[in-house]
Write a structure and sequence with these properties.
The complex is a heterodimer of chains A (323) and B (784).
Chain A (H helix, E strand, L loop, with lengths): L6 H4 L1 H17 L1 E4 L11 E9 L8 E6 L9 H7 L5 E5 L4 E3 L1 E4 L5 H11 L9 E4 L12 E8 L2 E8 L8 E6 L8 E9 L6 E8 L11 E3 L7 E6 L17 E2 L3 E9 L1 H15 L19 E16 L5
Parallel strand pairs in A: 2-17
Antiparallel strand pairs in A: 2-3, 3-7, 4-5, 4-8, 6-7, 8-9, 10-11, 11-14, 11-15, 12-13, 12-16, 16-17
Chain B lengths: L1 H21 L5 E10 L10 E4 L6 E3 L5 E7 L1 E8 L6 E7 L3 E7 L10 E2 L5 H4 L5 E4 L1 H4 L11 H5 L5 E3 L7 E3 L7 E5 L2 E2 L4 E2 L4 E2 L6 E7 L13 E7 L8 E6 L3 E11 L3 E10 L6 H4 L8 E16 L2 E18 L4 E20 L3 E20 L2 E23 L2 E23 L2 E3 L6 E15 L4 E15 L16 E17 L4 E12 L1 E4 L10 E4 L7 E14 L4 E18 L15 E17 L4 E16 L8 E2 L6 E10 L4 E10 L3 E2 L2 E7 L2 E6 L5 E2 L3 E10 L10 E10 L7 E11 L4 E10 L4 E11 L1
Parallel strand pairs in B: 1-7, 12-17
Antiparallel strand pairs in B: 1-4, 2-3, 2-5, 5-6, 8-9, 9-16, 10-11, 12-13, 14-15, 16-17, 18-19, 18-49, 19-20, 20-21, 21-22, 22-23, 23-24, 24-25, 25-26, 26-27, 26-28, 28-29, 29-30, 30-31, 31-34, 32-33, 34-35, 35-36, 36-37, 37-38, 37-39, 39-40, 40-45, 41-44, 42-43, 45-46, 46-49, 47-48
Classes of the chains: A alpha+beta (323), B mainly beta (784).
Chain lengths: 323, 784
């Protein structure tokens, strides 16, 4: 039930409040569909663009440009595929040169590459025709502490943003241990040891099981406010695809015998703020919660999203059957 | 400048009035003393003392039952009256100063008053605006939720007072925030007035004697909040005989014992209450996954007092209450413990100086703390917050003549605030973020006079000067160096003029005008849509400035049919500055400086309140309707435009009725209707990581469906109302939400993802809290 984010425990006070409320709600509350008078005229351009430095990864810099849509829309794969904007002009400046990113769509790609895109983006590329703008020729110079500028033009509108790749902070080690559940002989939990350097750092991680997509857990980011400059061990959660039914017996644990890939990243501050606010907003829809606006760093009228950078390390561990 | 001019005029009038009284040549004597209840020996607060020979001359007892009237030498008949008690007449030969302790006998049941302004025409004769006193005996006949009598829920049925939400005991007065109400229990500030997340108030009705709500012109004796005052006084304890009373309800039971320690000289009261609903579930959890999980709350009230002499009295009262949530799950080794609650203690010394002056000195302690301790195997996490005060105050009541009642006083409070103190450990590593408590010294000095200028004009005016010294430790900022513990970080102060004028049009009606400026130096910040135990109190700092409120009100008051009915229309406008909200992208954080997460703005609220109250007869009750608007404006929220406050509600209606069928049965009914609560709508979605995220519209720009509900109650007394036996008891049967209205508590969006088809269904759900809920409580009393 815990994660690298000590932040998770911060949120537990809210959980405790929600549980107290639940004592009442379970006993008496009634839930029914509600049809609020939604205003459907929003037309935002949504940008997700990342630059990643890694000694391990081969995935190039990319941008995804989509449109916002009404709450009442039927969101099926065809609808999602149509959200991708395919006629944008996307470029990134690395301080020396400006590189135009090339549009590729997963439907046009061989299965192996298609699967790789799905793995990296955490999106099911089987149902959805994912279209992304990519630095195919790897012309951008990628290194920590370097500054980048993004420019996107779409529908006669221009959007801008900047980012700086953060310093990399690798893990000291990663290991598996038996899950604490009684009778959970087939499960394991993963631990990591981190030596956090002095000064602000922002972390995010993803997990993948048996070459599946790299997924972030529900609360995937943390800053180092309360462990700055310290070394410590902590357990991490197995990330589950959205929509997976919650099982308190197995949640967050890995099956023994599985191959687990852990992607461990430091983020730039803007990207941390984006995921921090987005995940908090997504995870706090219960009683008494107020809305939380997501922190974007996209400039330009009608533009939302994130242009972020990260330094990442990829670790693979085969969890033995016997622990 | 306008306020300075107003203050100058008031001060000049005050001086003229006092000295004109002192210059009178007639030989005068003073009759003074205490009015007490005959059956208990408790002081009668707000009892009227009139002079039969001089219509219009009189006084009323103060908060401790003291009165003083000065008259020319002569023969007089004094008339003492008090709600629910027989009138008492006392003939006196006033040739010297006199001292009395007047006992009033209870028993006037036919003229019941549920909500009263005390005297028959007090509502039209007093300059005070928006002052309402609740009578505990009478509100016990109203329908209740879970069988729990709750004074805070009764207050919500009054005009200008809004509920914080379905079932909540929190309240908003005239467009003010929940933290802007000064809630005091025997003079001790109560920082969190709710058990069970606010669904049940912490005030055990068995221990409460008197409850007064001041929603209009706050008198200068009160300070520190900008919206209203809820002044709750505990019973002293019976001086005459021993009593044990209690009740058994659906979720909790209560027991109170009181009696004399030394008859007519000293008494005690001790009262306790505890929930047991979830205790009953414990056997079913035994051996299961969640063994050890439980929730309960309890509270204790205790009071002792001692009459040192006729003119010196000591009171010691205290409250202690806790809510406790324990959660444990065996399969994951995860558990947490979350206790929170208030504790208060008040030591008071009443002293009568001469015959015209009354002094009360109080030493007060109060504390609110919230703790959370969670662990899983080697990982531990703690989060706590709280506030602790020590206050010394003294207040004087001076009755120089029958046209003046002057009060003055001074108070000093030391605050220790501990917002969001976090700690954690994993294995050998301990996490200790550098967070320190914050301190402040708050003081106030005031003077006020209720001056009867003529038969038609009555004025209540005065001035309060308040200050707040924010004390270190405080980290360095761009402008200032860091401050050590005890060093002054920032000083705020201000004058708070208050005035209300009553112009009596005729015997039946009057017009009143009121103005009050108020400052608030402590602030409650919340990231949720309601007030919760996790909300934290923070002090004024160099960045967080004191809240300021200015309220203007005008009202027309009229009584009908020999004061059987009282009616009023009040119009108010409130202007507030330095309001605090979290930033719109706030996420909980334990290490960053909290005030960096705040944004500041202004607010305004205005409205009209109609009130028609039938006070006498076998059928009593009232109709209260409020039309109001409450808005806020922050540069950093809603693009700098005005937006409705969360508690902005255009229409709010309450109908309350109590019918005494006979000696054994009473019927009670309440109906409430309110505009739906505001919320921030979703105006669109976008995909991130292949999953929808929300785009929000203007803040609080949408409204939930209207709220309405009917509750009924039946009170049954097997031994009759006037039973004089040693044992009496009564049952209260209530039905909450009689026609099972599904009132929305909140709505939330949900996205159901089908991983087999890659499709997502977006939906919105409305959650309603309480369906039709019958309840029963049994209440008893033993007399010895």
């Amino acid at each position: 039930m815990y994660t690298t984010g000590l932040k998770y425990f911060r949120g537990l006070t809210g959980t405790a409040i929600a549980m107290t409320a639940a004592l009442l709600l379970v006993a008496t509350a009634c839930e029914e569909p509600f049809e609020p008078p939604f205003n459907e005229d929003r037309d935002e351009i949504v940008i997700e663009s990342y630059i990643e430095w890694s000694p391990d990864s081969q995935f190039p810099s990319y941008a995804i440009v989509t449109r916002s849509f009404p709450f009442t829309a039927e969101i099926d794969p065809e609808f999602i595929s149509d959200l991708y904007i395919k006629d944008a002009e996307v470029s990134i400046f690395d301080g020396d040169k400006r590189v135009e990113l090339q549009l590729i769509c997963s439907d046009d790609l061989p299965d192996a590459i298609r699967r790789e895109i799905g793995t990296q983006l955490g999106i099911d590329s089987f149902f959805i025709n994912i279209c992304i703008y990519v630095d195919l020729m790897r012309e951008l110079k990628i290194e920590p502490e370097r500054n980048y500028e993004l420019k996107i033009e779409v529908d006669d509108r221009s959007f801008f943003s900047k980012t700086t790749i953060p310093r990399p902070v690798p893990l000291d080690s990663i290991w598996a241990a038996p899950a604490p559940n009684q009778g959970a002989d087939s499960l394991a939990q993963l631990f990591l040891r981190l030596s956090d350097p002095a000064g602000p750092d922002y972390y995010r991680y993803f997990t993948s099981v048996n070459d599946g997509p790299l997924l972030p857990p529900l609360t995937s980011v943390t800053d180092d406010d309360i462990f700055d400059g310290q070394q410590f061990d902590v357990a991490i959660l197995k990330a589950e695809p959205r929509g997976t039914e919650f099982n308190p017996e197995t949640f967050g644990y890995f099956k023994r015998g599985s191959k687990v890939q852990l992607k461990w990243c430091t983020l730039d501050e803007d990207q941390f703020n984006f995921w921090e606010t987005l995940e908090f907003s997504r995870n706090n829809q219960g009683p008494f919660s107020s809305y939380t606006l997501v922190d974007y760093n996209i400039e330009g009228e009608g533009g939302i999203g994130i242009f972020g950078s990260q330094s990442c390390f990829y670790y693979t561990i085969e969890i033995p059957e016997e622990l | 400048m306008k306020q300075r001019t107003l203050f100058t005029i008031l001060f000049a009038l005050f001086c003229i009035g006092i000295f004109s009284g002192l210059n009178a040549q007639e030989k005068k004597f003073t009759v003074s003393g205490y009015v007490i209840e005959e059956n208990t020996g408790e002081s009668a607060i707000g009892a009227n003392v009139l002079v039969a020979e001089r219509p219009g001359v009189g006084s009323s007892t103060n908060s401790y039952g003291f009165f003083s009237i000065t008259l020319p030498e002569g023969q007089y008949e004094l008339i003492f009256s008090y709600i629910g008690f027989e009138e008492k007449r006392l003939s006196i030969d006033l040739s010297e100063d006199k001292w009395f302790e007047v006992e009033l006998v209870s028993g006037v049941y036919v003229e019941e008053v549920v909500v009263s302004a005390e005297e028959d025409d007090q509502n039209i004769s007093s300059p005070a605006m928006g002052v309402i006193k609740l009578d505990m005996d009478q509100i016990s006949k109203l329908p209740i939720l879970f069988g729990e009598l709750d004074i805070l829920k009764t207050i919500q049925l009054l005009p200008g007072v809004l509920s914080a939400g379905e079932g909540f005991s929190g309240f908003h007065v005239r467009g003010g925030g929940a933290d802007q109400n000064l809630v005091i229990l025997d003079e001790a500030t109560v920082y969190n007035s709710g058990h069970l997340l606010g669904f049940i108030s912490i005030f055990n009705s068995d221990a409460i004697k008197n409850t007064t709500l001041i929603k209009g012109g706050m008198p200068p004796q009160y300070g520190g909040r900008i919206s209203s005052v809820l002044d709750i006084q505990m019973r002293d304890g019976n001086y005459k005989k021993y009593q044990i009373e209690g009740g058994i309800g659906v979720i909790s039971s209560r027991l109170t014992a009181q009696g004399p320690i030394v008859e007519d000289k000293s008494s005690f009261l001790i009262s306790g209450r505890r929930t047991y609903l979830f205790d009953l579930a414990q056997p079913f959890l035994e051996g299961g996954t969640f063994e050890g999980t439980n929730y309960y709350f309890y509270d204790f009230n205790a009071k002792v007092n001692y009459r040192l002499s006729d003119k010196n009295r000591l009171f010691l009262s205290s409250y202690f209450g806790r809510d406790v949530l324990n959660f444990a799950t065996r399969t994951r080794g995860f558990s947490f413990n979350m206790p929170y609650g208030n504790s208060t203690a008040t030591l008071r010394w009443n002293r009568t100086i001469g015959n015209k002056m009354f002094k009360n000195t109080s030493l007060i302690y109060n504390d609110y703390s919230f703790d959370f301790r969670g662990s899983q195997e080697e990982f531990n996490f703690g989060l706590s917050s709280g506030i602790r005060d020590y206050t010394l105050k003294t207040d004087f009541d001076f009755f120089p003549g029958n046209n003046h009642h002057i009060k003055w006083g001074v108070s000093l409070t030391h605050h220790k605030l501990s917002p969001n103190q976090a700690s954690g450990s994993t294995g050998e590593t301990v996490f200790e973020p550098n967070q320190k408590p914050e301190y402040g010294l708050q003081g106030g000095i005031y003077i006020q006079d209720e001056w009867k200028i003529s038969e038609r004009i009555n004025v209540l005016g005065g001035l309060r000067y308040s200050f707040f010294n924010h004390l270190g430790p405080y980290p360095a900022t761009e402008d200032e160096t860091s401050k050590d513990k005890g060093e002054s970080v920032h000083w705020y102060d201000g004058f708070e003029p208050r005035a209300s004028i009553n112009y009596r049009l005729d015997r039946q009606s009057s017009v009143k005008l009121g103005y009050a400026r108020t400052y608030q130096y402590l602030h409650l910040v919340s990231s949720t849509s309601t007030t919760l135990p996790t909300d934290i109190w923070v002090p004024s700092t160099p960045l967080t400035r004191p809240q300021r409120g200015d309220q203007y009100s005008i009202g027309y008051f009229r009584n009908f049919l020999d004061h059987q009915y009282e009616a009023s229309v009040e119009v108010y406008y409130r202007d507030v500055a330095n309001q605090i909200e979290y930033t719109e992208n706030y996420t909980p954080s334990v290490a960053s400086r909290l005030e960096d997460e705040f944004v500041f703005g202004t607010g305004r609220a205005y409205g009209v309140e109609w009130f028609l109250n039938k006070k006498k007869g076998s059928f009593t009750g009232w109709i209260a309707y409020t039309f109001s608007i409450a808005e806020r404006k922050f540069d950093d929220i809603n693009k700098g435009r005005y937006f409705p406050a969360p508690y902005d509600r255009r229409h709010d209606l309450a109908l309350v009725g109590i019918y005494e069928i006979n000696d054994k049965f009473d019927l009670g009914a309440t109906f409430v209707f309110g505009s739906g609560q505001n919320y921030t709508p979703i105006e669109g979605l976008y995909l991130v990581n292949g999953f929808p995220a929300e785009i929000y519209g203007d803040r609080n720009s949408a409204q939930l469906p209207a709220y309405h509900r009917l509750d009924l109650s039946l009170t049954y007394r097997p031994t009759g109302k006037n039973s004089e036996g040693k044992f009496s008891n009564y049952w209260v049967f209530s039905i909450y939400n009689v026609y099972n209205r599904q009132n929305p508590l909140f709505i939330y969006p949900a996205f159901d993802q089908d991983n087999s088809t890659g499709s997502i269904q977006s939906k919105a759900y409305q959650v309603s809290l309480f369906p039709i809920l019958p309840s029963v409580s049994w209440n008893f009393k033993f007399n010895y």
